[in-house]
Amino acid sequence: MTDVFISYSRKDTEFVRRLHGVLSQLGRDVWVDWEDIPRGVDWLNEIHAAIEAADTFILVISPDALASEICNDEIYHAFAHNKRIIPIIHREIDERAIAGEWFDKSWETQARDNWRGIKHLNWLFFRETDNFNGAVQTLLETIDTDIDHVQFHTRLLVRAREWEDRNRDEGFLLTGAEIAEARAWLAAAEHKSPPATALHRAYINRSHQTENVRQEQALRLERQAASRLRYLVGVLVVSLIVAIVLVIVSFTQFQNAQNEADSRATAQVDAESARAEINARLLLRSAQDAFRAGDVFLGIALALEAEPFDSVSELSRAVLSEIAVSPGPVAIFQDVDTGAVTSVALSPDRRLALASYADGRLRLWDVAQGIGTFTTPLFVSDVLDLDGINSVAFSADGQYAASAGCGVGNPDDNVCTAGQVILWQVVNEPQPTLQQVNMIGVLPEDNPESFAARTTSSEANAVVFDPDPRNAPIRLLAGYSSSSEGPFGILFVDEGETLRPREQIFNQD
Hints:
Blueprint: E1 2-7, H1 13-25, E2 30-32, H2 41-53, E3 54-61, H3 63-66, H4 69-80, E4 84-89, H5 95-102, H6 108-119, E5 124-125, H7 132-144, H8 147-165, H9 177-188, H10 198-292, H11 296-306, H12 313-324, E6 331-333, E7 341-346, E8 352-357, E9 362-366, E10 372-374, E11 379-380, E12 389-394, E13 400-410, E14 415-427, E15 433-441, E16 451-454, E17 462-465, E18 475-476, E19 489-492
């Protein structure tokens, strides 16, 4: 949109250029057609659109302008759209002479209507004899009179024309706050100039009607949505209540089923416990019978078998006590000229006993033979240590045994200066015996754990050995100091286990 549209005759171009320059310097946006081109549809539409988009229509009056068909068309279009028209006299005119120019022209009626409208307007004078600057100041004051009304008139007219040109498509109508503003302007325009056109009124009224219909439709849709929402909420509430009831019923049924299952399980446990107690009592009775028949080991085994049953634990302990404190030894293992027994170890399956003697030999005994005195060991080693073997031990799986002694000693202070450990493998065919695997000097090395020994040598503390003969001993266990109080002891250590102080290897003393 522009501030001013200037309609003029080409013969007044020099004056119009001067006027255009002054208005432009004063910050006014001026639309002028400087081209003297033939009249055509596209060109004429462009002219009409420029008139509609201008706030003020300035008509430069001269005899040539009033006699021009183009100027009369522009004037007629401005009147048709209730534009603010400001006539300025540049050259004096003779009304009779001008009317003669119109005579018998196709646009004569249009020109006469234009002249009647122009005569009722206030004219400004820009003749050569007039003060140009003073006239410009008066022109500016006229242009700025009630400018808000004029500008809104123009903006609304442009939009109304666009709506009209698009076959009154509803997409080009006013909406929302625009309608309220346009209706307020229309009410005020009744007493202002320029007045609203019929197109203004039609555009505003149609916008208002369409907005009402749209709001009614939106309200109806909103009500329908609210109704559907209430229905859905009702359905959800009912569904939720039904679901809660079903959950309660299902949970109650589950609890009942669980209680029944627990009752059956309890009954089954009670039945199994009763059967176990009966079996345990039968085992204890058999244990007593075996012991009284002289089969002590069978009696012990049967009594131990009955021990895990809590309901008979007191009776089981009583039977075990009866067997344990029965007078006299169960079995005696005795060899001649062996000297004192220095250490003994029982295999994990309680079938074998490994004993070390003061004569420096090891003897392997079969302790599963029953009651009696036995003088023939399963295995007798060579003399291993003149100073005596101090300690023996079985591994947890019973596949290995170890003996420990002091191979070199100092008789003056009874201190072992070079201890040795011998690892044995238990061979069960054709009968249990021992085969030497490796002899190990006690030195601080680093190898996987298998069994441990504590020495009296100042060269080593507590150490750990690997039974594999291909591996050298050993690693030193931190936190253990050497001792000079006597010979050393030995025990097996589970793989990955750390030797703690309370598991410290005992010595012979």
